Hints:
The complex is a heterodimer. Chain A has strands spanning 9-12, 18-23, 33-37, 44-47, 61-66, 69-74, 83-91, 95-98, 102-106. Chain A is mainly β. In chain A, strands 1, 3, 4, 7, 8 and 9 form a six-stranded mixed sheet that branches. Chain A has a three-stranded antiparallel sheet with strand order 2-6-5, with no helix packed on it. Chain A is globular and about 40 Å long. In chain B, 0% of the residues lie in helices and 50% in strands. The chains are: A mainly beta, B mainly beta.
Amino acid sequence: xxxxxxxxxxxxxxxxxxxxxxxxxxxxxxxxxxxxxxxxxxxxxxxxxxxxxxxxxxxxxxxxxxxxxxxxxxxxxxxxxxxxxxxxxxxxxxxxxxxxxxxxxxx
Amino acid sequence: xxxxxxxxxxxxxxxxxxxxxxxxxxxxxxxxxxxxxxxxxxxxxxxxxxxxxxxxxxxxxxxxxxxxxxxxxxxxxxxxxxxxxxxxxxxxxxxxxxxxxxxxxxxxxxxxxxxxxxxxx
Lengths: 107, 121
């Protein structure tokens, strides 16, 4: 089965740039989607098709995908960005797969 | 506005059956896949399965195959997740989420508000 690996936690100071990675075998050949989940809330899609933003998601959120790593980048981080972030792909043998999630802490 | 509204929290005993629901509105319910996702307390997201309400084509994660049943009633734009015999380990928050149209692959957006299922004797 296909496995997505995320770091458990990432910390960043306000105003700086946070990068959250999602590792998978040849993930660059797949479409990666990212979700933000704040405590007590349902997940929200923040990036789809590697780097597209749904309407309403700030331009500070961006994504990239190449080789064995996809990355969610959050520029000019704000306190309100503190949340858990999950990557997700569809794989022909495993169907939908989520990464283990990364807790973003804003210092 | 596209919206998924889930049924309310449930408290059940081990061995009991349960069916929770997810009602879609604001879009063509039969044209988009609906997925179910489990989140155990303090843990990450786990994909359980997906259904295409247009023809009830259903796929399950191997981890959940045989453990739950996913169904849909397109006449009332509602998808369901059901258990025939609950276990304490089924205690979790369950989310439904709209997938994409056509292909089973793709992203999930939007998500329902979640249904908390507690199984305890």
